[in-house]
Design brief:
Elements lengths: L15 E6 L10 H5 L4 E4 L7 H7 L5 E3 L13 E6 L2 E6 L12 E3 L7 E5 L2 E5 L13 E7 L5 E7 L1
Parallel strand pairs: 1-2, 2-3, 5-6, 6-8
Antiparallel strand pairs: 1-9, 4-5, 7-8, 9-10
Amino acid sequence: MSGLLMRSCPSMAKALRILVLADTHDHLPPKLDELAAGADEIWHLGDVCAPSLLEEIALLGPPLAIVRGNCDSEERWPLMVDLKRNGVRLRLVHIPPDHPPVRVDVLLHGHTHVPRREQIGKVLFLNPGCVTRPNRGSPPSVGTLEIETNGALRWSLTRV
């Protein structure tokens, strides 16, 4: 599968629910179909490792976006993806930058294996944690990002 795996994007403004995964390292979370139920999109923030996992995720139906992690060898996957949903400017990366990027409202990243919700300047940094090898006592987790039509955000973690 190639870089950004977006099929169709919602064109009309509606509340969106996005399942956010990171650092799966050759393993998908148990009951992925239940986690993805009702999701409008699925975003994977890198370190997929086995590209065949993306095929399994794609079978769930919602459009899929992927960024390449430091453990991924698929060079066709982008290192960064910028998206705009309901007026919110989002950036997907694997390794978080040292400083908040400009013209971005929310930066979603993986790499650290630690869940994160931190406002730095005007940018909200979010990390769903790690599915397979959590760090610093964090349980394995995935994230759900909900974006209302007015741009209001809700971020939640689900233990897996």
